[in-house]
Specification:
Largest sheet of chain A: none
Shape of chain A: globular
Number of helices of chain B: 11
Strand content of chain B: 15-25%
Order of helices and strands of chain B: EEHEHHHHHEHEEEEHEEEEEHEEEHEEEH
Number of strands of chain B: 19
Distance between the termini of chain A: 42 Å
Low-confidence stretches of chain A: 1-57, 231-237
Distance between the termini of chain B: 26 Å
Low-confidence stretches of chain B: none
Helix content of chain A: 40-55%
Oligomer: heterodimer
C-alpha cells in the first residue's frame, strides 16, 4: 500500500498524515473537460444525497473564538497570535489571517493538539517574542504599529546559527529538545511553529478555500499539462 | 457454544480485497456463501473523502493525542489521518507483540471491506521473472505455478475491477486489460523521454497502473479526482469490495454477510481429515458460534489468516492446522522502502495540473533482468510523482507580509519531483509469525508474535535504490536533487505476505498449487499468506487473481465430490 505520490505539508510535531491541500486552484486558467452528462449527473446526485460529516462553518469557528477551549489561548496570548498572524498574512484585497479565523483555530490546536509540555513550551516562546518586542520597540507586540510589528518579525525571520542548528536537529528527530539547549531556541521554535500554524490555518480556512483558492471538491478531470492563463486572474478579480 | 443449524456451502473469512473476490466467485458459481467479517458494517455515508479541511478540527493533521492513545501503531500509516483513522483498528483491542528492537508495523482494517477501503490501489502483474526467482537463486521454495497459470485470472480480475494503465510491452511487467491511462504531468512526460534516452530504453517510466476508473465501468462511475481515496469513495470509482465484489456476490442471492464475527479457529474433523467449519466469537456479545461449511476460504490478511491457522488444532499438527511440516508462520515478507530522492524540475512555470490525480508514475524494475547485478539479488520498482507545492511551501518559506501572501496565492512554486523505490525482500525462514504465549486480544485469542528483520540483501538493495533514484531524477533534468538512505520497519509498506506459502509438496509449502492446505484440502488460503516470494510489485492483484482461481478450483472439486 506504499504511497505513490509526494507527501504534502505535515503538521508541527505530527507524524500522522497530511491534508496537503493543493495550492493550484486559483482563479486562472481552468479549462473545460467534463464527464459525459449521465455520469456527471449521477456523480452530483450521489454527492448531494450523502450526509457527509457535519458541517462546521466559519460561523462555528467564530464562536470558537468567542468561547475558547479551556486549555486554549488566554486573551494576552490570543492577542499576540492575532497580531503575529496578521503581520505574516495581512488583510489586503484578500482576507487577512484574523478575517479567516486563524487565531481561533490555533487556540484549538494549542488546547487539544499539543501535549501540556509542548503547550507550555509554545506559550513560553510567545512570551519571548513579546519580550523581544518590548526590548526592541518598547511596547508589547500586540500594541505595536504595523511597522513596528514588521520590524520584530524581520528579526524572528532570521534565526541565529545556534537556533537554526537546534531547529534542524529537532525536525530530523521529530521531537523538541528540553533543558537549556531547547530553552535557548524557544523563541525561534515558537516562531517557526506559529508560522506553520498561521499559513496552514489560513489556507485551509473556509473563506480562503472558497473565495481565494476557489478549490473544487470534485474537479472531475485530471490535466497534467494545463496552461496558466495569467490574464485570467485579473479578469476573475 | 452454539452450533449454527444451517450449513453453508462455503465460508469466507474476511471481506476485504481477497474475501470479496472469494465471495463473488463462489456465489456466482452457485455456492451458498457465508462471509464472516470481524469488524462492523460500513455504509456509503461513512465515506469522508469530500469533507473539506475547514470542517476538520485539526484541518487534516488528525487528533494527534487521541491517535497516540488509541492507535499508537496504526497512526504511522500514511492513510490513517484525521478522517480515515476510523478505518483502522484500535491497537489496544488488537494487540500483537514483537521481540525487543525488532519493530513491525501491522496496519489493520477491521470493517466490512477491510483494507480495500484504505489501500493505495496500485496493481501490477507479476511475470515469470518473479515466479521463477526462488528456483533461480535458491532462496525460498520454487513456486508451484508460473505466469501462464495465473495470466488468465489477472485478466479476469482487471476486466471486473477496472485498471487504468499504459501498455509498455515489458517482459518483467506484463501488460494487462487496461482502461485508458491517466495523464502524466508535463514534467513527467519530459522525464520519461529523457530517462529512456539516458539509459538505453532500459528504465521505463510509465503512468501508474491503478484500480481507479478513468471511464465509467461495470456500473461504477469514473473518478472525479477529488484526491483522498483512502477516506472512501462515494462513487466507488476505485476498487474496493464494498462497491464491487460484495454487491456482485449479493446479486446472486447466495451471499450471507455477517459482521462483528471474529474467527478464532478453523474446526477440524479428524475422521474426514477436513475442516468442519469455523469457531466465531461475536465481537459485541462475545457469544461463541460454530459455523459449518463444505469449504473454508481464509482471506483475513496474511498475518491474520496465519494466526487463525496457528490457533487451530488438528491431528498430527498440534502447533496449528497445516503445520505438519513446521512451515506455518515462516517466510513472512514485506517490501522494504524508505530510501529515495527528490528534486526540482526547472521551467514549466506556465504549466499546472488540474484535479487531484490518485496515482503517480512507475518505473519498472531494471536490476537483474538480463544481466546479474553485482551487489544483490532480485530488484525493485520505483513509484513517484511530480507537482507544484502551492501554498504549502509557505510554512517553511522565508518572508511575511503582503508580498509573501501574494506570492503564496498567485505563484504555485516550482515543480517538485520525488521517487520512492520499493524493493523485493527475500524469503527468510526465521522471519515468522507465532502465537504469543501471554498476550491475548479483546476476544481472548492469542496475539500474533511477529519477528521479521531485513537481511543483508535488502540493506545492499536500499543503497542502490537511493543512488538510482537520484540518477534518474538528474537524467530527467531535475536540479537540487537530494537522495536519502533510510529504511522503514517491516510491515510499514502494508505489503506483508507469506506465513502459509504455496509449495509443490507438503514438505515445501503449507498450501498446494491451488491454495489448498495440504493437511486439510477443503481449506483455501488466498490472501497474502500464500505467497512464496514477494517480487517488488504491489501484490493485491495477485491475491485477487489467485483467489478467483482457487474459488473456481474449489467449486470444480466440490462438483467432483473431491472435497
Amino acid at each position: 500500500m506504499g504511497r505513490s505520490f509526494p507527501a504534502g505539508a505535515r503538521g508541527p510535531c505530527s507524524e500522522s498524515g497530511p491534508v496537503g491541500m493543493p495550492g493550484w486552484a486559483i482563479a486562472n486558467g481552468i479549462k473545460g473537460g467534463f464527464l459525459e452528462r449521465r455520469g456527471f449527473l449521477l456523480a452530483l446526485g450521489v454527492a448531494a444525497a450523502l450526509p457527509f460529516a457535519p458541517r462546521v462553518t466559519q460561523e462555528i469557528w467564530r464562536r470558537v473564538s468567542e468561547s475558547p477551549p479551556p486549555d486554549g489561548l488566554t486573551e494576552p496570548y490570543f492577542n499576540i497570535v492575532s497580531a503575529l498572524a496578521d503581520t505574516i498574512l495581512p488583510p489586503t484585497d484578500t482576507p487577512g489571517a484574523s478575517d479567516a479565523g486563524v487565531p481561533a483555530w490555533i487556540s484549538v490546536v494549542v488546547a487539544d493538539y499539543y501535549a501540556s509540555s509542548e503547550r507550555t513550551a509554545l506559550l513560553d516562546g510567545l512570551d519571548s517574542i513579546d519580550a523581544l518586542a518590548k526590548r526592541t520597540e518598547g511596547l508589547p507586540f500586540p500594541e505595536l504599529t504595523v511597522t513596528g510589528r514588521e520590524r520584530v518579525v524581520a528579526v524572528l525571520e532570521r534565526p541565529n546559527a545556534y537556533e537554526r542548528f537546534v531547529l534542524r536537529l529537532e525536525r530530523s528527530q521529530h521531537k523538541p529538545f528540553w533543558g537549556t539547549a531547547g530553552l535557548l531556541a524557544r523563541r525561534a521554535r515558537a516562531y517557526a511553529q506559529m508560522k506553520t500554524l498561521i499559513v496552514h490555518g489560513y489556507f485551509t480556512s473556509e473563506i480562503v478555500q472558497r473565495t481565494v483558492l476557489l478549490t473544487e471538491q470534485m474537479p472531475r478531470r485530471f490535466e497534467g499539462d494545463a496552461e496558466i492563463l495569467t490574464v485570467g486572474l485579473d479578469e476573475a478579480a | 457454544m452454539i452450533r449454527q443449524s444451517r450449513a453453508f456451502d462455503a465460508i469466507v473469512v474476511g471481506s476485504g480485497i481477497s474475501g470479496g473476490w472469494a465471495a463473488k466467485e463462489l456465489c456466482e458459481r452457485g455456492l451458498n456463501t457465508l462471509v464472516l467479517e470481524a469488524g462492523g458494517p460500513i455504509e456509503a455515508m461513512d465515506f469522508v473523502e469530500h469533507v473539506p479541511p475547514y470542517e476538520m478540527r485539526f484541518r487534516g493533521w488528525g487528533n494527534r493525542l487521541e491517535l497516540k492513545r488509541d492507535q499508537p501503531i496504526q497512526r504511522h500509516c500514511y492513510a490513517c489521518d484525521e478522517m480515515s483513522h476510523k478505518f483502522f483498528v484500535n491497537d489496544h483491542d488488537n494487540p500483537y507483540t514483537t521481540p525487543e528492537k525488532t519493530p513491525f508495523h501491522w496496519f489493520r482494517g477491521r470493517q466490512v471491506g477491510g483494507r480495500s477501503i484504505i489501500w493505495n490501489r496500485q496493481v501490477y502483474r507479476w511475470s515469470d521473472l518473479d515466479f521463477e526467482a526462488n528456483a533461480r537463486d535458491g532462496h525460498g521454495n520454487d513456486w508451484p505455478i508460473r505466469y501462464s497459470d495465473i495470466a488468465p485470472w489477472y485478466g479476469h480480475v482487471e476486466r471486473f475491477i477496472g485498471v487504468s494503465g499504459a501498455k509498455e510491452g515489458l517482459s518483467q511487467l506484463p501488460d494487462g486489460d487496461f482502461l485508458p491511462p491517466m495523464e502524466m504531468t508535463v514534467v513527467e512526460e519530459q522525464a520519461r523521454n529523457k530517462v529512456l534516452r539516458a539509459f538505453d530504453g532500459k528504465r521505463v517510466m510509465t503512468i501508474g497502473r491503478t484500480a481507479v476508473l478513468t471511464q465509467n465501468h461495470n456500473g461504477r462511475l469514473a473518478c472525479h479526482y477529488c484526491g483522498p481515496c483512502h477516506r472512501g469513495c462515494a462513487t466507488h470509482s476505485y476498487f474496493n469490495s464494498i462497491g464491487s465484489t460484495l454487491p456482485a456476490a449479493a446479486k446472486t442471492g447466495k451471499l450471507t454477510l455477517r459482521p462483528h464475527s471474529v474467527v478464532a479457529e478453523v474446526v477440524f474433523d479428524p475422521a474426514r481429515r477436513r475442516a468442519r467449519g469455523v469457531r466465531v466469537i461475536d465481537a459485541q456479545t462475545f457469544a461463541e458460534t460454530e459455523f459449518e461449511a463444505r469449504v473454508v476460504f481464509l482471506c483475513a490478511s496474511a498475518i491474520e489468516s496465519t494466526r487463525i491457522l496457528l490457533n487451530s488444532r488438528a491431528v498430527g499438527s498440534p502447533d496449528g492446522l497445516g503445520n505438519s511440516t513446521g512451515l506455518l508462520g515462516r517466510y513472512v515478507m514485506d517490501h522494504h522502502f524508505g530510501s529515495g530522492a527528490s528534486g526540482f524540475m526547472p521551467g514549466f512555470t506556465n504549466k499546472r495540473t488540474i484535479g487531484e490525480r490518485p496515482n503517480g508514475i512507475y518505473i519498472a524494475r531494471f536490476r537483474n533482468i538480463e544481466e546479474p547485478w553485482r551487489d544483490f539479488l532480485r530488484g525493485y520498482g520505483i513509484q513517484g510523482g511530480s507537482g507544484r507545492a502551492g501554498w504549502t511551501r509557505g510554512t517553511s518559506m522565508p518572508g511575511y507580509g503582503t508580498e509573501f501572501k501574494r506570492t503564496l496565492i498567485e505563484d504555485l512554486g516550482g515543480w517538485a519531483f520525488s521517487l520512492i523505490p520499493y524493493g523485493e525482500t527475500l524469503p527468510y525462514r526465521d522471519n515468522r509469525v507465532t502465537l504469543d504465549s501471554q498476550v491475548k486480544d479483546k476476544w481472548g485469542i492469542p496475539a500474533a508474535r511477529i519477528e521479521v528483520r531485513w537481511g543483508e540483501n535488502e540493506r545492499e538493495m536500499e543503497k542502490d535504490m537511493m543512488v538510482t533514484a537520484g540518477e534518474i531524477l538528474e537524467a530527467s533534468g531535475c536540479k537540487d536533487v537530494r537522495a536519502y538512505l533510510s529504511t522503514n520497519p517491516p510491515g510499514h509498506c502494508v505489503h506483508e505476505m507469506g506465513g502459509a506459502r504455496m509449495g509443490r509438496t507438503p514438505e515445501e509449502g503449507v498450501l498446494n498449487e491451488w491454495n489448498q492446505v495440504w493437511d486439510a484440502p477443503n481449506v483455501f488460503v488466498t490472501d497474502g499468506a500464500c505467497m512464496a516470494s514477494s517480487a517488488c510489485q504491489n501484490p493485491s492483484i495477485t491475491y485477487m487473481a489467485l483467489t478467483a482461481r482457487a474459488a473456481a478450483r474449489a467449486v470444480q472439486e466440490l462438483k467432483r465430490r473431491e472435497l
